[in-house]
Amino acid sequence: MAVNFPLICPEQLYPVAGVTLGWAKANIRKPNRKDLLVLALDEGATVSAVFTTNRFCAAPVIVSREHLAHVRSGGMGVRALVVNTGNANAGTGEEGLAHAHEVCSRLAQLAGVTAQQVLPFSTGVILEPLPVERLSAALPAAWATRAPAQWFDAAEAIMTTDTRAKAASRRVVIGTEQITLTGISKGAGMIRPNMATMLSFIATDAGFTQPVLDSLTKHAADRSFNCITVDGDTSTNDSFVIIATGQADLPLITSMEDPAYIVLRDAITELAQTLAQLIVRDAEGATKFITLQVEGGATLAECRQIAYAIGHSPLVKTAFFASDPNLGRILCAIGYAEIANLEVNQIDLYLDDVWVVKEGGRHPSYLEEEGQRVMQKPEITVRVVLKRGHAKAVIWTSDLSHEYVSINADYRS
Amino acid sequence: MAVNFPLICPEQLYPVAGVTLGWAKANIRKPNRKDLLVLALDEGATVSAVFTTNRFCAAPVIVSREHLAHVRSGGMGVRALVVNTGNANAGTGEEGLAHAHEVCSRLAQLAGVTAQQVLPFSTGVILEPLPVERLSAALPAAWATRAPAQWFDAAEAIMTTDTRAKAASRRVVIGTEQITLTGISKGAGMIRPNMATMLSFIATDAGFTQPVLDSLTKHAADRSFNCITVDGDTSTNDSFVIIATGQADLPLITSMEDPAYIVLRDAITELAQTLAQLIVRDAEGATKFITLQVEGGATLAECRQIAYAIGHSPLVKTAFFASDPNLGRILCAIGYAEIANLEVNQIDLYLDDVWVVKEGGRHPSYLEEEGQRVMQKPEITVRVVLKRGHAKAVIWTSDLSHEYVSINADYRS
Predict the structure, then answer these.
(1) Do B242 and B335 reside in the same domain of the chain?
(2) 8 A C-beta contact, residue B174 and residue B250
C-alpha cells in the first residue's frame, strides 16, 4: 500500500569510500530472512548519532551512547556497526545490556578492534530476550560478505513491517571533488521520532571534526526524522547515525562557517528528509501521504504542537483514509492542541489550493466538491494559517486504515 | 460491539421532580430519527455545567456559558435546555452564534421565559451550518410531548454514532427523605474529555446553592468524564450539566461541610462514573473495556500523563484488539510519556493478576500463556507501579479495531 514510493535501483546507490556492508540470515525471529547487518568503517571515520528520547530506551541505545561517549573522551574511533531486526532488546533489563555488550565483543573479535569501537542497534519486538547465540553465530557470515556496493541489501536487512527497502544516494560537487552521500532507513509503525527515527544510517566520504558532525546530525534530524509521525508512538530504539569517512579528496571540515559545511549540511538534510518521507510513504497501512504545514505561529513549538495534534488525531486520519472532506475534525484538533490564547476566529485552513476555512468558520464560497476532489489524491497538503507571528512548521504523516489495524493486530503472530 | 453494556430498562430510570423531557424528529441530518430533545425545569432549579477546553468550542457552548454567567450575576434561573444531534454547530463563526441564539429564543417563546433562561447544546458534524429552520420547526412538537418519565427516550434522542442509549438512575436516602438522581450521556468517538464529555445531563431533586453545586459538578467531572478516552480527540462540544431542582423534602444544601453534601456528592460522582464508563463500553468499534491504573507516582498529573500515553497509543490499542500480550508496547508508551527523571528500572507492570514486568524488565517467572489468558478477557486492568510517591490515577479506555476505522471512515456518508 506504499504511497507514491519511488523505484529504488540498487545500482543508483553509490558506494561510500571507507564503508563496507555485509548481511546474514540469523533466524532471530523468523527463519530465512535477512535480519542481521554489519557496517565496517575504515580507520579515521567520524560518527555522530541522535537517539530516542523514550525513557524505556533499548539496551543497544544505552550501549551505543556509552561507546560514542568513550570516543568523545579520547577513545579510539568507531570501526563497526551491527544491526539486528526481529528483536528490539528493549524492556530487557540488565540481561539485555549484557547481550548488547556480548554482540559488540563478538563483532570486535572478528574486526580486530575493541568492543567499544562497535555500535549495536536492534529493532523488533519489545520485552523479549535477544537470542544472542543465534545472532552471534551469524556474525562471521555477515562479516565475510562485506562489500562497498551493498547498500540496497543493507536496507533490506533492517526491514521489519516495512514493505519496501528504503535507501537514497546523492552526489555533490565541491570545488572539483565529487562527494558521495548514501543512506538507508527503516520504519513503518511505532513512528513518532523524537530526536531520531527507528533506524537510519547515512554515510559520506567527506570528513568533519566531531563537534561539526554533531551539529550537522542534529540539524538534519530536526528537519527530517523529527518531522514525521505515523502513529505517535515514539519507539524505544530510534537511532539516526551519520558516518563521515573523510576519504574524499576534500579538506577536513572543522567549522560551521566553512562553505563546504553549508553545502553538505543542506545535502545531507535533504537526503535525511527523503529517507524520513520514505518511512511515511511506507507507513503501516498508508494510502495517503499528508504534508501538514502550520504557519503564522508565534513560535516554532506551537506550530509543531498544532501540526502533531492534527497528525495524531485518529479522526483526521480516518477521514483521509475515507477521502472524506470531514474537515471539521482538523479544526477540532487545532482547538485541543492546548495553545494558550489561540484566537480561533483568525484561523484560515487550506486543503492544497482549496480555501476551506476563513477566520475560523467555513469559507462562504467553499464547495464540498472541491474538498472532495483534493481528498481523493494520494498526496495532500493541509495548510493552517494562524496569523499570530512568523513561525512555520511542516510535518509529514499518513492516514489510518483498516490495514494499520490488521498489521498491528497481527505483528507478532 | 458494545463491551459488557448493561441492559437499561426505561422503567428503572426514575423521574426527577421538577424536570420534564420531550423529543421530536427534526430531520436535522437524517430523516426519521429522534434528533431533538428539550428539558424543562420548574422554577427554582439550580444548574451547573463544565464545558470542553477545546479552543474551537461550538457556538452552543459559548451561548450556554454566557447564559449561565448571566444567572450567576443575578439573572433569572435556567428553565429549559435544548439538545440537537446531527450537527455540532461548531466551526460556524458568527452565523453559528446567531443560530444558537435563535434556537434559544424560539424555545423561550414556547416556555414563556427569556432566551437567557435557555441553554443550547449540539452534537454531530462540525463545520456545517445548523439547519436552524428545521430545528425550530420541530420545537413545538418536542415541547408538547414533555413528560417526567421519558429519560430513556431522552437518552435515545441525543445519540449519534452511539449504538446504545446511555442512562442510569440512583436513589439515596438522607434522613427519611429519598433523593433521586437520574442522568443520561452520549458519545462513542471524538472522546477525550477535558473538563467534560460529549454530552451528559444529570438531574436530582436535592437542592444546592450555586457555589456548592459548582464544586460538586467539578468534583464529579474530574473523577468520571475527565477519566475516559476513546481516541484522544477532545470534542468541540463536550458539556456536562447537573440540574438540582430542590423539590425533594430536604433542606437546601448551602455548605460543602453538610453531611448530606458528602453523601450526594459521592452518589452523583458514582453515577457520573457509570455514565462515563457507558461511553467507553459503547466506544466506536470497542471489543475491550480497559482500566488503566497508574500508582506510586510523585503527582496525580504524572500518573494521568502515563495513563493517557498508554490509553492513546494505537499500538497498545491494536494489541488489545488482537488479544495479543505484546506488552512491550505498554512499556514503550510509558517511556515516551515525557515524565522527567522517570526511573524505568523501578517500574512494575501487572495485567490483572499477572505480574509481567518487574523493575523495568520482563518478570523472570512471567509466562506468555498467562498474559494471553488475561488478554482474551473483555475487561482488563493494566496496573503500572512507579514507586516514586503515593499518587494514583485511573482512566478507562477501549481498544482500536477495524470497526473504529470503518465507523470513522463512513460517519458522514
Answers:
(1) no
(2) yes
For chain A positions 131-160, those within 8 Å of chain B (CB to CB) are: none
Which chain B residue has its CA at the smallest distance from A348's CA?
Answer: B91
Contact B301/A at CB under 8 A: no
Residue A5, in any domain of the structure: no
Element (H, E) at A297: strand A289-297
Q: 3-state SS of B30-68? A: CCCCCCEEEEEECCCCEEEEEECCCCCCCHHHHHHHHHH
pLDDT at B380: 96
Show residues of chain B in contact with A235, CB under 8 Å.
Answer: 332
**Any idea what the Cα angle at residue B359 is, between residues B354 and B361, rounded to 5°?**
75
Q: How much is the pLDDT for B196?
A: 47
Contact A331 B236 (CB under 8 A): yes
Reply yes or no on whether the pLDDT at A413 is more than 60.
no
Question: Within this chain, do residues B338 and B378 fall inside the same structural domain, yes or no?
Answer: yes
Is residue A321 situated within a structural domain?
yes
Which residue among B235, B251, B281 closes a domain? B281
Judgement on whether residues A71 and A139 belong to the same structural domain of the protein:
yes
**Section A304-320 average pLDDT:** 93
Q: Which three cell numbers stand for residue A124?
A: 523488533
Mean pLDDT calculated for residue range A141-158: 96
Catalytic residues of A: 197
pLDDT of residue A370: 96
Kindly list the distances between the CA atom of residue A28 and the CA atoms of A85, A187, A410, B366, in Å, as whole numbers in the listed order: 7, 18, 18, 21
pLDDT band at B56 (very low <50, low <70, confident <90, very high): confident
Residue of B52, B180, B197, B245 marked catalytic: B197
In this structure, the answer to whether residues A277 and A207 fall within a common structural domain is yes
- Identify whether the C-beta of residue B185 lies closer than 8 Å to the C-beta of residue B283: no
Instruction: Read off the pLDDT of each residue in B89-102 and give the average, rounded to a whole number.
Output: 94
How far, in whole angstroms, is CA B217 from its chain's centroid? Answer: 12
Lowest mean pLDDT among B1-10, B33-42, B102-111: B1-10
How would you classify residue B124: left for phi > 0, otherwise alpha for psi between -120 and 50, otherwise beta? left
Which of A360 and A104 is assigned the larger pLDDT? A104
Rg (CA), chain B: 22
CATH number of the domain that residue A67 is part of: 3.60.70.12
Does A304 share its domain with A206?
no
Domain count, chain B: 2
Chain segment B160-195, per-residue pLDDT in tens:
888 899 999 999 999 899 999 999 998 877 777 664
Of residues B53, B194, B335, nearest to A54 (C-beta): B335
Q: Is residue B3 part of a domain?
A: no
Please determine, for residue B255, whether its predicted confidence score (pLDDT) is greater than 70: yes
Residues B276 and B360 in one domain: no
Q: Where are the alpha helices (DSSP H) in A112-170?
A: 132-144, 151-157
A236 pLDDT band (50/70/90 cuts)?
confident
Kindly list the residues from chain B whose CB atom is less than 8 angstroms away from the CB atom of residue A411. Answer: 324, 326
Residue range(s) defining the domain that contains residue A376: 289-410
Q: Does B249 lie in the same domain as B160? A: yes
Residues of chain A with Cβ-Cβ distance to B314 below 8 Å are: 231-233, 314, 400, 404, 408
Partners of A190 on chain B (C-beta within 8 Å) are 315, 329, 332
Tell which of B253, B281, B309 closes a domain.
B281
First to last CA, chain B: 20
A11: Cβ–Cβ under 8 A, 6 or more apart, which residues? none
Identify whether A4 is part of a domain.
no
Question: Is B186 within any annotated ligand binding site?
Answer: yes
Q: Where are the beta strands (DSSP E) in B300-390?
A: 348-351, 354-358, 361-362, 379-385
Indicate if the pLDDT at residue A357 is higher than 80. Answer: yes
The residue type of B251 is P
CATH code (residue A373): 3.10.20.340
